Each structure stands twice: as C-alpha cells, then as structure tokens.
Amino acid sequence: MKKISIVMLLASSFWGMAQERLEMNDIDTDDIELTPVFVGMPAIATDRPDITESAQITPVGWFQYEGGYQYSHMEESISVTTFTDAHQIEQVLRFGLNKRFEVRAVINANTRRIDEPAIWVNPTRFTGVNPVTIGFKYNLIEETDVLPQTTWLSHLTLPWIAGGDYRAPVQGNTVFHEQRLMLEKGLTRRLGIASNIGISGGMNGMNGFVDGGMFSLALGYDLGMDFGVYAEYFSNWQLQGRQLFGTPYFDGGFTKRLSNDLQLDIYAGLDLSPYVKTRLNSSGLFIGTGVSYRFPLAQYLR
Questions:
Q1: What angle is formed at CA 160 by the lines to CA 154 and CA 163, rounded to 5 degrees?
Q2: Do residues 239 and 274 lie in contact, with contact meaning Cβ atoms separated by under 8 Å?
Q3: Which residues, 6 or more positions from 45, have their beta carbon under 8 angstroms from its beta carbon?
Q4: Neighbours of 241 (CB within 10 A)
Q5: In the 8-state DSSP scheme, what is residue 148?
Q6: Any residues with CB less than 8 A from the CB of 46 and at least 6 apart, and which?
Q7: Which CATH class is domain 2-300?
Q8: Residue 149 dihedral angles phi and psi, to the nearest 5°
Q9: Which of 10, 51, 229, 302 is 20 to 30 A away from residue 213, measured at CA?
Q10: pLDDT tens digits, one per residue of 97-119
Q11: Which tens digit of pLDDT belongs to each residue from 159-205?
C-alpha cells in the first residue's frame, strides 16, 4: 500500500483499446500532420486510473496531462501496528517524440499521517512533493492478430528534486529505478486485457539494485456512450533482508470520455492480504478520481 501512495497510481485506462485498434488500422500514423483538424485520431489512451500502465504511446507532438486525487488507508503489523493515512495529488506529464517513443515525468504531492499507538503519543505527519520521477516508454511490438501491443517503460526517481519533508537528505540521495514490460491486447470490439511485469530498486550498486517489483492483470470493457469499466488484480513485492513479502490488491473503476482528448475517472481498491493470509500482516483501501487531457503541443510551438 505504501508504494501506491508514493510511487504508483499511474495506471492505464484501456477500456476502449479494441475500438482504438480498429480506428488505427485504417490510419497511416506517419502521415498524420499537426494541424488544427486531426481526422481519424484515436481516442485518448491513459495510464490512469488503474495500476497497469498502458502500452500505448502518446501521439507524436502531443502533450498529455493525467492528474488526480487519491486517499489511502493502511494498517500494517510486524512488531507493532502502524496506521497510515495519505492524501495524494498525482500528476503524469507525457509527450510523444515519435510513433514508438514518449518522454514522461511523474510529480506527486502528498500528506501522510503515520501513527504507531504502542510507541508514539502523537502521530507523525509528512507533507511535501515526492521525489520527481522521469522516464520514457518505448514500443517494442505493435499489436497484431496474434501478438499483443508490447512496450517497455523505464523510470528514474531523483531524490534531490523534491519538496517539503521529502527533500534530501531526509529522503536520502539514492536514485531509484523502475522497469516494466507492458502487454495489451484487444480481445473483442469492446473487451481488452492488459498486464504489467516490473522490477525496482536503488541505483547504488548490486546491493538493493532489485529489491522490489510488481505484477498486474486487468480487464477493460467498453460500456458504450463513451463509458468504460475495468477490474484489476495487482501485487507488489519487496525484499526485506532475506525475506520476500508480497501484497495483493484488487481494484476497479469507471471512465467517462467527454471528448476524443478529455477523460474523467473514478476508482477504488482493497488490500487482499487479510483474505489470502500473506506473510506481511497488512490491510487497507484506497479511492480516487482524476482527469486526463491531451493537446497538440508541437502545433502551438511552431
């Protein structure tokens, strides 16, 4: 749950992916020009609201903003019980450089209230801007009748670009990395499936270079009238000493496309640990909402 409130929630809304594939099959994207009229442009494809990042690349010359708010509550018991409540503002900035490559930045700000009643008289509060994450997506394989859309994501989190209680040296000077392989496939005109597999860790030598990771699997369905729904299972794992801990979650949500370039979302999720008896004794929930918008930035910079 901790990784949700700090790093992730950069998830994809791919409920209309099958319809989008059909639109793109009729277009030679190399011939698209950045003019005020974008005939045949596919609908916006976002990384939010689920954890599963979209395998789609932001169109060439377009800037895409994805922002939202999330509340999360976590209870974790190891030697003592820790309660964490977090309010987070999430922002992902994306820009398409060519058909297969986009650059991106993740800027999250939050307030976290951490309480350990057995130890502290008063809860501890952290407020500020999390270390900024920069990175890219690169499309490896375009979707065919057999193969899924396959894209690689690489992120670096920079501890010296932060604010408030998250500034170094409190945060530390270690640069963290995350690598993901993203797969996405339209099953029917309305139903799509997607999955992410990832690893993460610190860029401070082999010790801790890979000490975390994730797996996700999501189904998205086009309800019609520009409404969509998704359901998702995902799991975060972390290595603590010689022990490997995994935390499973289930979440779902709705999206509403107001135009080809504007989308709203709402979602909620639950820590499944109490129901599957994981090694890490935790429980929690999260809920959020957001908006995504894109526009042809390169057109305005001419």
A1: 105
A2: no
A3: 12, 13, 14, 16, 17, 20, 54, 56
A4: 5
A5: P
A6: 12, 13, 54, 64, 66, 255, 263, 265, 292
A7: mainly beta
A8: -60, 125
A9: 229
A10: 999 999 999 999 999 999 998 88
A11: 999 999 998 765 568 899 999 999 999 999 999 999 999 999 998 76
